[in-house]
Amino acid sequence: MPTFEGLPGGVAVSHLRVYDWPAADGLRGGTPHLHLACSEAYVVVGGAGSVQTLTASGFRQTPLTPGALVRFTPGTIHRLVNDDDLRIVVLMENSGLPEAGDAVLTLPPRHLADADRYRAVTALPADGDEAEQERAARARRDLAVEGFLELRRAAEAGDPAPLAAFHRAAAALVRPRVGEWRQRWRRGAAAASAATGGRLDALECGDCGHLADAVVHAERPSAYGRFGMCGRLDVYRG
Fold first, then answer.
1. Percentage above 90 pLDDT, the chain
2. What is the pLDDT at residue 3?
3. For 159-213, how does the pLDDT look when each residue is reduced to its tens digit (9 = 90+)?
4. Can you say how many angstroms the Cα of residue 84 is from the centroid of all Cα atoms in its chain?
5. How far apart are CA 25 and CA 149, in angstroms?
6. How many CB atoms sit inside 10 A of residue 110's CB?
7. What is the C-alpha to C-alpha distance for residues 37 and 171, in angstroms, rounded to an integer?
8. pTM (2 decimals)?
9. Is the backbone of residue 28 left (phi > 0), alpha (psi -120 to 50) or beta?
10. What is the CA radius of gyration of the chain?
């Protein structure tokens, strides 16, 4: 029978403290971006703020207060706004792929046409101290807000072309990594689905042998306060 011992459904979870850095438009918060293959969900556990989203259907702003659950599908550009110590538990498809590559920041078009240039302005210094990492994270956030505001203005003016162009550029940037992502999906969400199917097949035949193989897993975050796209992250391996 297929087995899978990751988080239910092959999801991943992290705890997010949203950046409180002010941006050019006066709002404090994270880096606007989209995911191309994965859905994501927010469970708000503290503070207050909102998430600004932009899709082909237009711009939307959703309030975030404790207890709120907001989820969105691939292609949703999202920007977290921190009004007061906003803290979120983030649920991600495909074993955390959104934090492992499935994300493109809404940089201005001049940074999107070339993969090397995109990496140069989005990568954080691996060997830098915390101050250097913060400066780099804040600089890329500011660039992404610049691009996001351009996309929003065009959408609100009834011009869909800039958003469509961003979608094409984002897809071109991630295309070389799709094979790697497919392997992650097979080991995670696909394996979890196959394991459930195997259990259902067994139960339908009156076989409950897998119940004797039950295990319990417990863990603490594998990293605390890591600089992410939207804020400081406590992340888990599972």
1. 95
2. 82
3. 999 999 999 999 999 999 999 999 999 999 999 999 999 999 999 999 999 999 9
4. 21
5. 9
6. 11
7. 10
8. 0.94
9. beta
10. 19
Q: Which two tokens stand for residue 225?
A: 């306060």
Nearest alpha-carbon partner for 89 in 49, 40, 134:
40
- Classified as helix, coil or strand, 238 is coil
Q: Which residue has the tokens 């897993």?
A: 217
Q: What single-letter DSSP state applies at residue 123? A: P
Residue recorded with tokens 């080991």: 187
Helical segments of the chain, H only:
93-96, 115-122, 130-156, 161-174, 178-185, 191-204
| CB-CB contact of 114 with 204 (8 Å) | no
Quick one: which of 10, 172, 168 has its CA closest to 97?
10
- Contacting residues for 105 by C-beta, under 8 A, at least 6 apart: 31, 32, 33, 122, 140, 143, 144, 147, 229
Give me the mean pLDDT over the 27-47 stretch: 98
Cα-based distances in Å from 175 to 113, 141, 168, 187, 213: 13, 23, 11, 20, 40
Measure the CA–CA gap between 94 and 22, rounded to whole angstroms. Answer: 32
101 to 37, 73, 83, 187, 228: CA distances (angstroms): 10, 16, 28, 16, 12
Is the pLDDT at 238 greater than 70, yes or no?
Answer: no
Contact 77, 144 (CB under 8 A): no
Q: How far apart are CA 140 and CA 121, in angstroms?
A: 6
